Amino acid sequence: MAFTGRYEVESEDNYDAFVKCIGIPSDLIEKGRNFKVVTEVAQNGNDFIWTQIYPTGQSMTNKFTIGKEADMETMGGKKFKATVKMEDGKVVADFPNYHHTAEIAGGKLVEISIAGGITYKRVSKKLA
């Protein structure tokens, strides 16, 4: 499927401003600034398993089906319920304090999160 793969962060825009805006503690902001986060996506039709793997060995996994409410977790570890949608080939989710989209563009995973007028963009390259 289009999203299935393993991706590593290649570039980020507005990391500091965004994570401060959503309330991530400053010690975690500092640690995460230069992390090469790996994202693993398994897509089977409308079913997704979306995992973020951090260099510390920690990971966060969200399992969801497009159009159905699912239990999710934010970057900051908050649990919540959301209905993930597919709009124009983009995975779209409203987290408690930010709006998130993800798409495959030019073979790369492009994620955009918006909070408080700040747009955070993370581009990840596909690993072999």
UniProtKB/TrEMBL annotation:
PROSITE patterns on file: FABP
UniProt keyword list: Cytoplasm, Lipid-binding, Transport
Keyword Cytoplasm found: yes
Subcellular location(s) per record: Cytoplasm
Keyword Cytoplasm: yes
Pfam families: Lipocalin_7 (PF14651)
GO MF annotation list: lipid binding
Any one annotated GO CC term: cytoplasm
Domain Cytosolic fatty-acid binding proteins: 5-22
Main location: cytoplasm
Family: Belongs to the calycin superfamily. Fatty-acid binding protein (FABP) family.
Protein known as: Fatty acid binding protein 6
